[in-house]
């Protein structure tokens, strides 16, 4: 099995007090090309996990490897950040330039990449997120969903194998959410990117290969969407809700209708 991310017995906290661990002896492996969704209510440790994978934080205990490189190794940290690119919640905080294409070029420019290659990557990345026609526009004039797609293009331009998205749709309206989710799925299915998608919108997890549900810094549930959402009582016990379409599918199956729950998606 080829893993791109290997998290082994990681504990982490922001204070020295062991009682206040935010991640508690957590282990998780992410397969190359996998679409993993991380669910959990506020404060369960999802963002901390994302920052640890990307090397923004170094685990207090345990180890994290990205493409076999240890995130605690200062010599490989830049390669790790480029391998596992991060997209954050607020697109306004991620866009730095006054023109879309300059914004997308920012990362590769900092990597010291040659200008013709930067040009190629910028065009290709903007096409990947269906924003090529906006390349000369000012980012602040775009909708929330469009801005987030430009932020994703900025990450893609760095040629990451894995993209970690930390609640990328939390600040978007329903159509913006849909735009971003469609692009994320496409990057996984058509371009083979490993996706680690953190969200508290349950319906965004329906198409995942695997769901991990976090609670108090530990993995409380793990499995395919059907396995995880099939345990409605446990999901509710964790303060979360099963997506309505999934609940409906299960009810229909229980009522004797011969359908595969997988067909009822967002
Ligand atoms: P989630 O993404 O699931 O909401 P976080 O990883 O952001 O969870 O937070 C987990 C816990 O860590 C919360 O109790 C939060 O208050 C705390 N925390 C997060 N970031 C910091 C920080 N920079 N300093 C101190 N505490 C933090």
From TrEMBL:
It comes from the Bacteria. Residues 5-241 form the ABC transporter domain. GO terms for biological process: cobalt ion transport. It is found in: Cell membrane. CDD domains: ABC_cobalt_CbiO_domain1. It is a peripheral membrane protein. GO terms for cellular component: ATP-binding cassette (ABC) transporter complex. SMART domains: AAA. NCBIfam families: cbiO (TIGR01166), ECF_ATPase_1 (TIGR04520), PRK13648.1 (NF010167). Belongs to the ABC transporter superfamily. Probably part of an ABC transporter complex. Responsible for energy coupling to the transport system. Part of an ABC transporter complex. Responsible for energy coupling to the transport system. This is ABC transporter ATP-binding protein. It comes from Andreesenia angusta. The gene is ecfA1.
